[in-house]
Amino acid sequence: MYLVKKESAVRIFILVFVVFSTLSAYSQQEAWFYLRARDTSFVPSFEKKGDYLSYSGKDARLKAALKNYKIKIFKKTWKHAKKQNLKKTFFVIADNEAMMTDLLQNVSHIFEFGELIAEEDKKIFEPNDYGLTSTIGDNLGAQVNLDYLDVMEVPKAWYYTTGSRDVIIGISDGSIKTDDKEFEGKSKIIRESFMAKGHGFSVAESAAGQGDNGYAIPGVCYDCSVYSTNYRHINNLEQLVELSKLGVKVINCSWGLAHYYETAQQAIYEMMDNGTVVVAIGHNPPFSETKGKKPYYPASYDKVIAVSSASHRYAHYSENIQIEEDKGLYYIKNIRYYVGLTGGFKNNDTTQVPHLYPISIRNLNSEIDIVAPSQGIYRYGERALNGFDDVSQFNQTSGVAPLVTGSIGLMFSLYPCLPAEEVETILKFTSTNIDDVEPNKPYAGMYGAGMLNTGRAVKMVFDMFAEKEPVKIENQRFSRWDFKLTSISEVVMQNQKFTEEATLNLTSKKRIVISENTVLRPNAKGKIHLKIDLTLKKECELQLRDPSILND
């Protein structure tokens, strides 16, 4: 019997033996931790001596504490820091975790807080252009906040793969230049497009701009190739079909129109049969106008992954309460997992959970499949055309789509034989459920499965074919959509619901474990089909950034 039910959760303890930095490996025994200084003006000085850092500052107590340890990294980072702590948080790698305790106890005039990083969270990789939240990577690129990639856990995906030149990402948008530093040697223009004020540059950069080259920022799938085309032919999508026939694995459409064409729908089916996934935006009209009733295309076609925007920066609304001076009204902005950018308080009472302003919510409807960060997205078009760095100020969906597109590029790079029809399933299974976020509840059913998590999506692909750990389907509640997943590895479902019209077709070569808090109860329109197939074989091998990852 391979299909089993267990009352207790399956607990997997991951032993991490090797963690890679950009240039060298750090052993499991080394301690990684965050330190928070009391004052933003504190900037310690170090000298490099061989492989380690030596404190060269004048604080006697700090010097006495640090002399007992071997330090590899001690640098300022914005990662995981609250608003008031952005400029006084440090990332440290040392030979002993006792260093953190030592500093907090004996150098308390400088440091006020420390936090060890768990072994499982050391499985990351960061290129040398990873922005202000960079930890193990040297940030030689644009000095901008890339915390939206942190929220998506992209460095955890990069641990497995940074992309492949063999995986081509299609950009249907404004024009790019093939000799641009972020695209040279990996791009091709299939159909010329308009310059569109650098829109194509920005979208292509977010999806697949070159990383680890000490310039600008890394795209999500930064070692993937790019084919560029235009964004017309809405009735038959001929430019997209052309890309698909050329071997493009995923096509980004940061555009859309409110017209349905059956010929275009058939084109989508043709591309899916070719193994090509299309990602498109639900578009930008505010919810205050559309009321969840206005679909845009190609996003709303069947088999297209439709995306919209959500906020990501502040973990709790209390971290970013602002005031509108003219009216004396308090409001919030860019709160993590909220589907709107701004919101206010009933009776101006900031002790109450805020409500979202519908005008700050981009178009949502029942066709949306997933949301991703949208405000503060790097706009490479400004650097490419005008020579300066800039980020998006609002929450347009154009910058959201390439984050999803790049994530799919990583999935195909890791396992080139991944069935295109299973990509959407993996993205939804691994997304962060945001149904219980109170301000989102009036919009339930219109923001898809939740917030994109690139790290979990790529790890699920790894787990499906590495045969090391079970594939976990957990922490989601689905009442619709058709899901299909085929795994060589064992599959465990826990804290998971498939109800109402949800359809699940799950096949595993090994076991399927139905663990605690799992509900499989569809209605007459849904279906659950669980199957063990001992004849399943891998169609190809995992293409890992470093083959030794299989030994972790």
Question: Share of helix among residues?
Answer: 10-25%
The termini sit apart by: 30 Å
CATH class of the largest domain reads Alpha Beta
Mean pLDDT: 94
CATH superfamily of the largest domain: Peptidase S8/S53 domain
The low-confidence parts are 1-28
Q: What Rg, in angstroms, do the CA atoms define?
A: 24 Å
Query: How many strand elements?
Result: 29
Number of H- or I-type helical stretches:
12
Largest sheet: 7 strands, parallel
- The proportion of residues in beta strands is 15-25%
InterPro entries: Peptidase_S8/S53_dom, Peptidase_S8/S53_dom_sf, Peptidase_S8_subtilisin-like
Organism: Aequorivita aquimaris
GO biological process, one term: proteolysis
Active site: 173, 199, 398
Short summary:
The chain has 552 residues and is α/β, with parallel strands linked by helices. It has 3 domains: 31-122, no CATH class; 146-314 and 369-443, 3-Layer(aba) Sandwich (Rossmann fold); 467-550, no CATH class. Strand 13 (250-253), helix 7 and strand 14 form a beta-alpha-beta unit.
Give structural notes:
- The chain is of the alpha/beta class and 552 residues long.
- It folds into 3 domains: 31-122, no CATH class; 146-314 and 369-443, Rossmann fold, CATH 3.40.50; 467-550, no CATH class.
- Helix content is 19%, strand content 23%.
- It is built from 12 helices and 29 strands.
- The protein has a 7-stranded parallel β-sheet with strand order 11-12-10-13-14-15-20, sandwiched between helices. A 4-stranded parallel β-sheet has the order 1-27-24-21.
- Strand 14 (277-281), helix 8 (287-290) and strand 15 form a beta-alpha-beta unit.
- Helix 1 runs antiparallel to helix 2 (98-106), helix 6 (238-245) packs parallel to helix 7 and helix 11 crosses helix 12 (454-466).
- The longest helix has 14 residues, at 401-414.
- It is globular, with a radius of gyration of 24 Å.
- The relative contact order is 0.12.
- InterPro entries: Peptidase_S8/S53_dom (IPR000209), Peptidase_S8/S53_dom_sf (IPR036852), Peptidase_S8_subtilisin-like (IPR050131).
- GO terms for molecular function: serine-type endopeptidase activity.
